[in-house]
Amino acid sequence: MFKASSKSYVCWRCASRNITLNRLEARVSLRTHRPQWRRTLATVQHPTSNDNAKADADADADADAYADEGLRAKEEQKRKRLPIRERLRIWDEEHQDEVKTMMNDYADTGELSNSYTRPQNISMANPEISSPLFDGDELGDLRSEDANLNPGDMVELSSEGSRRPLLAICLGRFNGYDHFYTSSGKWFTGLGVKTLFVIHNFAQPAELKPIIDELPSSETPLDALNALQDLGHTPSRSIGAPLLRRMLNFSHEAEAVYQANAGTLDASSAFIGDPVKHRYLTLHEIAELLLPQSYQKDGKFEPRALYAVHRALMQDEVFFRPLRHTGHRRSYLFEISPLSEVRIIQRAENLVREHLEDYTGLQNGQKEKSSPVQDFITNARRLIDESRKTREWTGTGIIGPSKSKAKPVTHEWSPTELEILQFIELWASYQKFPKHSRLQCIGSAILRTLDRYQDAETLSASTGWSFLQEVGWIPSWEIPARYSIRFPGVEIKPGGGYVRPYFGNLERHLKRDTLGPLRRVWENLTAYCIDSEATMDIDDAVSLERTADPNENWIHIHVADPASSIQAESPVAKYAELVPETIYLPGHFERMLPSSISQDRFSLAPDRCCLTFSALIDKNGSVLEHKITPGILKAVVYMTSEDVASAIEDRRQDPTVGEGEVNLGPIPKGKPADRSMTRPGDLNNDQKKELELLSQLGRAIHAHRLRKGATPFFQPRAEAQAYFDHLPQEGTSNTRFVTGDPSIRIAYSQRSGTDLVENAMRLAGEIAARWCHDRGIPIPFRSQPHAVKNAALIQQYTRDVFYPLLEAGVRPHDNQWRHLRSLIGSDEITTTAGPHFTLGVDMYTKATSPLRRFSDLIVHWQVQAALVEEHRRRASLIGNKDDSFLPFGREQLDRMLPMIRVREKQARALASGDGGDQWILQALVRAWRFGEAAVPDTFRFRVLHLHGRRSILGRLDWFERAALLRPDALNGVLRMAEVRVGDVYEVKLKNVNVHANQVFVEAVRVLEKKDGEIPVVPKDADKAQLLQA
Description:
The protein has 1029 residues and is an alpha+beta fold. Helices cover 36% and strands 17% of the residues. Strands 6-5-4-3-7 form a 5-stranded antiparallel beta sheet. The protein starts with 11 loop residues before the first helix and ends with a helix.
């Protein structure tokens, strides 16, 4: 973002010494290519076996020079009497090989940053390069919230290594890049900017225009923008003075609020912290607990007051932790540590500091003291040494695969040792502490005392993660994302699964069917349950009902109905709310509801209850009528989507990104379905005709949505499956060892053979939304309000740029995807209905998966209550304004939705985001480092984005993995100034860090050079118009 100094920072004290900078640089230039600062800082190990041998040789030489032991002692005593500065000067001259450079002032992702002399180290977050994901019936929203920023919004910008953030005003987005003007008078561009604090409409368009006029043209390529920023090109401070004054005044006002309430804000943990449980509160909720009502205006806190609270919380390194992976600009959550966890941190810090002081005393001739840390070190070393007999330490964020089936050594840790391990878990697994926290050094100090990680480049959290694997605290194949993306109120079970609070026998809390008198028996209809054979919870089916008019037919979507037997405030509901979406992360499958309830009682089958969403459809795909009916299924046919496609000869064509698969270990055969499956040859003619007509009507509905702007694109994504059937797991109460390793299969995802089910399920969501909206029933509506404002621009962009690529079978570039997402914005979950542009509907909700998604269960509870009320009144509720008869009133649901949204995004991020990606990287390490599967010697690397002159972000042609190419890995093939977005290089792997979810490569040769910039916007688009979007 900003230009880093070409030379390392040197303080005035060092500059005043007799050692010249030229001599310093000469010494540095003679070092190896490996950055020396990594081995000279608190988080870095210095000595290797060669270094020790050299030190021994130097000691022998010193002994010869000082043959008289008395002279040596006298010399040492004389040196100790010297002033400290003189002793440091002598030490410096005797250790010429120790480099004097400091950490990078503006570190790239994954690097240690200089947060002490450069506290304002603002760097842009990694841009998201994954394409949108379709999750069956809707666009899976794994995107960040930055797309919703508008020109004039003021945000707080910071990075993980920054102790002091900056305020910046969004100038807009054009040519795919965000533009900001900061409180320090700097202009910069970036991608994927994530912020924890936003004030909308802080500045008006007229105030932005003078600065925008100074910016380069919207056609300026990224490399030129980077060069302009490196050269310090920015709008003059005189032009930006009005905005600078406004940001400065806001900072002063927030500081005044903080000073007036410092006693409360600095001791906020005493007011909020729970003794044993984590708490999760939004910034607004915390402000209500800490600030007086005088800072509220019209029932809402003023921005300056909220920012004062926000800064106070962010300065706390222990108690408050923002849920960064799942933040939302209107419902951002803070995790508040329990007092018991804080005591563990404080206890571990004191133990380590005392141990280091004792170690220093031993070097000065003091007597050795017994130390619980020393006992921990001894036991940990033994376990590490035993682990390395069967598993190699790799430095890649995981330990190597098992070499033999020898039974590993186990150990029962003492209470004090457990506290140290729990601290390391908080540091390395949960990544609880900011990168600039002093507690980072405590974790590194523990690793250093073990004397087992001399080969580690840095003693960082990634090394700590490997340590936990080596001592058996976590399995060798554990997924780091399970800890960094933690479900509020749910404990992680090491080795697999989650632990929710105990609610007793949940089945005894089920009640009788409340919709029994209202149910219709679907006697003469065949319900088709179309799902894979591996699916265990069957929660939807579709059927067809013909009318007297051959151009009009009823489509019925039958959905499992657990809400009729589960009360909204029952223990079963509270159990489901904690994991509000079934988690499909390999090795960690977790149902929302217990199988004894979801599968055995409510999974669709003959004579089981259902809630049916029905629509009368004409041949053009228009919805003429809609209704919701409680029912009981009779005739049920179970089929796979592929068999349906084969039976009706209707197979859709999806774009192909890559082919092939990678298998590590024995891949078991699929288990047979636990239900009777119908094959194409088993269908009679009437059933085939029904499926054909359902497919035709579904396509007509989809075509109708396309005309309203729906996105007709599915992007295949690499997915991993892990298999554990052959693995016996052994261990004690607090150690876990596995002999052998899970099998892993990587392949590209494929949609079902026909889009019949997909179109029907989206129709059900539209029906549920319309039905509830007509009756004034608040439910979790899904909408895209940002897209409504940009409807004309979206239609122009899809018509002129996006759809022509799709029709030609060309995959859109990531910048083009990013620009489309910036116009559409993110999905919102609110109690107010609104258009969902991506799906092409006026309103939408999710209602077809109540067995695996809690928000669908909420919809069913609300619909059920409305049906009962209509039956009681014997009249329709259309036009109703009363919500007193509902399980959840509008205000209560508004309070619930932020947490539901957070938990839903966590579940998706685990299965389809970081969690799934880390399985793929584990497979890559095992294939590359240990030869368990074939991987290419070199890869094609397409440049996607330039992080200034710090690194190059690109994509490999191996399952579309993102990778980083840094300047020191260009190997003279080209210079950073020559890199262009769209270039293609041949590269080879340099390192893979599973814990950090990163792949590093080095250049081999240039394959393709991009002549022009990737077209992101239509050529005739105006910059001012794009900024307004």
